[in-house]
Amino acid sequence: xxxxxxxxxxxxxxxxxxxxxxxxxxxxxxxxxxxxxxxxxxxxxxxxxxxxxxxxxxxxxxxxxxxxxxxxxxxxxxxxxxxxxxxxxxxxxxxxxxxxxxxxxxxxxxxxxxxxxxxxxxxxxxxxxxxxxxxxxxxxxxxxxxxxxxxxxxxxxxxxxxxxxxxxxxxxxxxxxxxxxxxxxxxxxxxxxxxxxxxxxxxxxxxxxxxxxxxxxxxxxxxxxxxxxxxxxxxxxxxxxxxxxxxxxxxxxxxxxxxxxxxxxxxxxxxxxxxxxxxxxxxxxxxxxxxxxxxxxxxxxxxxxxxxxxxxxxxxxxxxxxxxxxxxxxxxxxxxxxxxxxxxxxxxxxxxxxxxxxxxxxxxxxxxxxxxxxxxxxxxxxxxxxxxxxxxxxxxxxxxxxxxxxxxxxxx
Length: 412
Ligand code: ATP
Hints:
The protein has helices at 2-6, 14-71, 137-141, 159-174, 176-182, 200-210, 230-244, 256-259, 268-285, 307-310, 326-336, 348-354, 360-376, 384-398, 400-411, and strands at 76-83, 88-93, 98-102, 117-120, 127-130, 143-145, 189-193, 214-219, 248-253, 293-299, 317-320. The protein has 4 domains: 2-71; 76-130, CATH 2.40.50.140; 139-320, P-loop containing nucleotide triphosphate hydrolases (Rossmann fold, 3-Layer(aba) Sandwich); 326-411, Orthogonal Bundle (Helicase, Ruva Protein, domain 3), CATH 1.10.8. The chain is an alpha/beta fold. It has 15 helices and 11 strands. Mean pLDDT is 81; it is low at 398-412. The strands form 2 sheets. It has a 6-stranded mixed β-sheet. Adenosine-5'-triphosphate (ATP) binds at residues 155-158, 196-202, 253, 298, 300, 332, 335, 360-361, 364.
């Protein structure tokens, strides 16, 4: 009884049958539409998953090839020195010796030129690729400043030296026509010599600032390299870079490291230093006089410099930067106390008298130390006593004369 109640009633007459069938058809059509929509959705999901799969496969391939590359042995850097016919070239590896090798077919033969840097296979030393023209990282590692911030007003007590350097370096860069009119060759560069910390670097930076020149600072000892010919190459690249960026001031600090007198009896290390010096001399000779590259050398030991460096035509002016006298010390103290809040009792003249034998960097340190004493004592301004304490402290820390007299023999 209950079973028959749950069953939909069978259509009794044709009209009911017609309605029943119409209902079923409508239901089935709706269901069909739903299933079609589902199918479309599933198909689009499938397509999406397939593209994802292709993407991931590509990524896996890329990562695999990257792992392969990372695992591959390193390539040797070399320089092409000569190109024999076809794909045979002579290369010099960075370790020194020269080899005749083959170059890869993929390299454009026009790019195979002497002097070009390339990568070499470790075993066969075949040329694998040509490297873009670039200067040695060490050149870029050197101090390179677009235009330094220091100006002449930051230098105390060196007025005659500033005038000399302005005539020799600034004038040819700023007004080359004056030299043309008179018909003389402008100086190529100047050599500054004097005790440490007297403002040689400062002077060179100030000239670069006044002439809006690119400032390249190299320390002589950095040019002395481990492998034969490397130092000379660095010097060559340094001059190339300077020419490219001109106007440029090349400042070679501690030039005595490469410019010391050449002697007869030498070790291979000394010979390498001499080779670097010769490249330096050749670089200086290679300059057009009216070119926009000037060289400023600096040394504390002019007595050991090679005579070839000192002759006119290399460094045309040799300027001594001495230890400041009392007037000089006063001028330097004025420069370094310009921005300081000084107490009325501070007499810079007295401090200049008390700092006999001190150089510019000592005086700068004294000013800074006096400021530190003022901060420590919670003073409103730097007092005379702060300066006296600072002089005593710097005297203890940096009294070069005492140090040399006590320990000089040890380093002789
Ligand atoms: P080194 O021979 O050791 O390289 P240097 O002569 O090149 O020394 P600098 O580096 O120019 O000495 O000087 C060091 C610091 O001392 C400078 O940054 C500057 O603040 C200060 N100084 C030296 N001389 C003077 C000066 N005449 N006027 C103002 N400041 C100076």
